[in-house]
Design a protein that fits this description.
The complex is a heterodimer. By secondary structure, chain A is α+β, with helices and mostly antiparallel strands. Helix content of chain A is 26%, strand content 34%. In chain A, strands 6-7-8-3-9-10 form a six-stranded mixed sheet, with helices on both faces. Chain A has a five-stranded antiparallel sheet with strand order 16-20-17-18-19. In chain A, a hairpin with a 2-residue loop joins strand 9 (198-203) and strand 10. In chain A, helix 2 (86-97) packs across helix 3 (102-115) and helix 2 packs parallel to helix 4 (131-143). The longest helix of chain A is centred in the middle third of the chain and has 18 residues, at 161-178. Chain A is elongated. Chain A starts with a strand and ends in a 6-residue tail after the last strand. The mean pLDDT of chain A is 89. By secondary structure, chain B is an all-alpha fold. Chain B folds into two domains: 1-30; 41-247, MetI-like fold (Orthogonal Bundle). Chain B has helices at residues 8-28, 39-51, 54-86, 88-101, 110-117, 122-145, 149-157, 162-200, 205-214, 218-247. In chain B, helix 7 crosses helix 8, helix 8 packs antiparallel against helix 10 and helix 9 (205-214) runs antiparallel to helix 10. The two termini of chain B are 25 Å apart. The mean pLDDT of chain B is 91. The chains are: A alpha+beta, B mainly alpha. Chain A binds chain B through residues 42, 45, 47, 65-69, 71-73, 75, 77, 79, 81-83, 92-93, 96-97, 125, 127, 141, 144-145, and chain B through 148, 150-151, 153-161, 164, 168-169, 172-173, 175, 247, 249-250.
Chain lengths: 355, 250
Amino acid sequence: MPRITLKSVSNYILKDVSLSVHDGEVMVLLGPNGAGKSTLLNIVAGLIEYRGSVLFDDQPMDRIGPEKRQVGYLFQDLALFPHMKVRDNVGYGLHMRESGNRLKMAKKIDALLEMVNIQHLGDRYPRILSGGEKQRVALARAIASNPKVLLMDEPLSSLDLRSAKYLRMEFRQLQRKIGATTVFVTHSLDEAAEIADRIAIMDHGEILQIGAPDDVIFNPVDKRIRSFIGEPNILTCQSSHAIENGLAVATCGELPIVTPYEGKPIRKIAIAPEHIYLSTEPPAGPRINRFQGVVQRIQDYSSMVRIVVDVRGQEIVAELPRKVSDLMGLSKGSQVHIILKLRWLQVLNGETVSL
Amino acid sequence: MKPRGHSFYGSLLPIVVFLGLWELAARLFVENPALLPPFSAVIREFLVLMDNGVLGVNFFHSLVRVVIGFLAGSIAGLVMGIMMGWKEVMHRSLHPIFSLLYPIPALGWLPVFMLWFGIGELLPIAVIFMCSFFPVLYNTETGIRSVNINFIHAARTLGASNGKILVTILLPLALPNIFTGLRLESGMAWRVIIAAEMVAIPTGIGALLMRAESLVRVDIVIVCLMVLSIMCFSFERFFLFLEKKITGGW
């Protein structure tokens, strides 16, 4: 699979962007709306004009049309052809690119439908499919002609959290299987952290930082990046030890925090303010990562407020809707309970190396 | 809950009631039946006109004109609409000109065509052509230009050439718009042909209608209007049926 290289690429949105995506890698473009992420994808696909150069394995693609670049593209709105049944959608690229044995083509379409678990939907029109089923059809269509490069523009943004997570895992497995060099666009840090080999943070047509997910979360190089990734709480841990069920307890200052365990010492833990549960009453449920603290100050952000809580000498920031905060009657000195939700903890392991 | 919809018999009932009221009113309240004959008298006259062939001959003349004019105008509109929808240069060059010509009613061309073609078969066909050409052109162009750009991008990244994209993506997705144009204008063609025949042509349903008016034969006038109404309705229904048949599953 090709290495993708962008050399000083510019257009009406992008400003002199250079980027290299390794063979078989999943590079996630992460950034707010209007950052230029989709524009960059369209340039790699050859769908819009640009200055600079795009290379696949050092071969310039600039004079090659999108129909010959051998890219598979998953659009944000999926762009399933509404007048074609699922089979015809999936087989469209095969019919355009390959001439020959219809039986062989039908078998290939069957195999693709089976690969993404929609073999029973072949004769339906996209209109009557669920969101998740449509994603699978679009994915099967994109990989049908064995593309060397896979471009995905927020393909999971219209799904509920659970379906999106499930499909992300399936996609990652499929991507490893076919090995296509992949550029994946999202504006969700959680999605990026889950799927990426490396993340490129974009804003206003520029790439601000490229690095492994841990690198971007724990060592943001720019204030804009810190702000975009939600200014997470970062706790430095002195020690950690494994417990049961694939978990570990890390001691970060005075706080014993239960985290997922990957067999490596835990150096830092990050959690975004919006993922911290805060209440004035003792919360129900298991006593994991639950601490008591005292409100130090309250920061206003239009409809949201950030509550800075002192927990055993460590400042932890939680974010709440203003209405909820007002209902709780929080003020400086209030006693509160917080929970660091296990599923949202990002862990920096000891052996992670910055890229 | 039963789905909302209009059954055939449900639609028929108000028509039967209307015809019944017409029959009663004409018999009970109209002093001069020549001015508003009862429905039964109109049907009697319809059978007479069918029997002596007058209605059949005139209907045939009108039908041939509508079919030729409508087909020629629609095909020309379709081809021009495809080109203007597909090629930006065609759109930019021709759209301003057609925007000026489109608002002119088809019958407005009648005096010009009378001078150009004289009074003959070509005249009503040319008027029907104008009646069909512009709406089909605009609906086709709009249908093609309003196709989601990502469908085109998707087809392109899947290896489709420009020609393949036109045939496999743009035209099928423009079909609902194209059918709307065809449906509305097929009915309009009948309205226009009657008007053209009333003004300038000695044969056809419109001409029969004018002759009946000069002889104060309201029953024949109503027969002609009923034929016109049924033909407008049938043509529109035919294209609606075709549209549902082709695009109904999407």
